[in-house]
Amino acid sequence: xxxxxxxxxxxxxxxxxxxxxxxxxxxxxxxxxxxxxxxxxxxxxxxxxxxxxxxxxxxxxxxxxxxxxxxxxxxxxxxxxxxxxxxxxxxxxxxxxxxxxxxxxxxxxxxxxxxxxxxxxxxxxxxxxxxxxxxxxxxxxxxxxxxxxxxxxxxxxxxxxxxxxxxxxxxxxxxxxxxxxxxxxxxxxxxxxxxxxxxxxxxxxxxxxxxxxxxxxxxxxxxxxxxxxxxxxxxxxxxxxxxxxxxxxxxxxxxxxxxxxxxxxxxxxxxxxxxxxxxxxxxxxxxxxxxxxxxxxxxxxxxxxxxxxxxxxxxxxxxxxxxxxxxxxxxxxxxxxxxxxxxxxxxxxxxxxxxxxxxxxxxxxxxxxxxxxxxxxxxxxxxxxxxxxxxxxxxxxxxxxxxxxxxxxxxxxxxxxxxxxxxxxxxxxxxxxxxxxxxxxxxxxxxxxxxxxxxxxxxxxxxxxxxxxxxxxxxxxxxxxxxxxxxxxxxxxxxxxxxxxxxxxxxxxxxxxxxxxxxxxxxxxxxxxxxxxxxxxxxxxxxxxxxxxxxxxxxxxxxxxxxxxxxxxxxx
Length: 572
Fold this sequence. Notes:
By secondary structure, the chain is α/β, with parallel strands linked by helices. It contains 21 helices and 18 strands.
């Protein structure tokens, strides 16, 4: 067992609200939906039938009117506009949305994405100077800018207006920008606070189209990019994000733009239905790789390309860069592991704070995530260069890393991010003190937890429960993602039928059998349990998600195993 299983307290089927009985919803799925807060007929309808009509009015966002009027003036006067974005997928999709939309309107638009190594994160003075070289009078930031007080003040001194489009938590006084579009800023009445940066950019273009009386199709063409960035940024797939993801995935699967078509092909996904998981684990890393290894402008060129051949060429470059990134990632992970093994203090610390000279800035966030997953503890990886450490932090919902950095800002040069993911810079001579301080803070503020990470189980079922009706309503719950994860099921006293096969050197493929029903199962990274699962005399408790696929016209059901233990006569 790799996880502590948290079992549900499901609603009894006889207590299901009328809307579920009227729609003949599978009782197991109905109970899971109710657990997720879908209790009224209105919520049920919005959940099972996402509608673009339920997108919120963009003008509810603070400063939207001001921002749109300034942008229209820039377009009408032929001003040079610079779209300034972050180098992750959320940033490059947001840049692509604004850049392509304004270009279609005849705007004199350029874009700039900082170099991770030379510039670091966010709005930089070098980026502002690039705007001055282009004679820019208006900068639109995407997925950054909310903490760029000094840089935006510098732009104002140079008579350059800045409109901030961001979704990160504000820190300190807001920058003196011409306008700030951020649902999380104080005094913003926008009803949904969890848009990704690309989502804020989308709302900006939606508002612009409404003001210019353009057809809805103008801004809806960007839904695929919104879905890509929203999935990659791991924001909650509820409310407006659910609508954007639903229609964005529909566009990706039915009529992908040239860049996405090429990326999907190079990743070997041409015959698959693209969903949130495939974006997060297959497509997003390829887009992220150029921002980590070289420069993310290649990703923007891919996403805005009109040429199939150009898109194919860029996609090949991204694929190659991703392979390089994986090699660097693995080396850094091994070095981090060695630091932990060599230090008793680190082995017992509630927060892993690791530093080393010249770790590649493009992979420290990925490695921090891997350490978090392995040790079930927050991890901060710091790359030391010329007396300054640049770091990526990853945490669980038991410990708000952003709040921790706020409390300990006396040790830091700068910081920013979210509750579970953040970045920071620090003088290297303060790292030891910071390591001690954050672990003292964690000792007082981290929620109690077991050694094993928790795995929430949505329902305990028997294989015969997996009916066509259940699969239909499981599909109605899509798209899955944070706050609406694919349901996790537990089945007890399951036997393995036939041979357990090893795939790809590290994965297991087998047939699971219960009550006479046999279902294909796959266990990624489960090869180390081969000998246990080959014991035919034993039965097992499996925790899994149900996945459907279509291969050569045949619909198939597969269990993706997440964890297991040996059945001993008791459920779980």
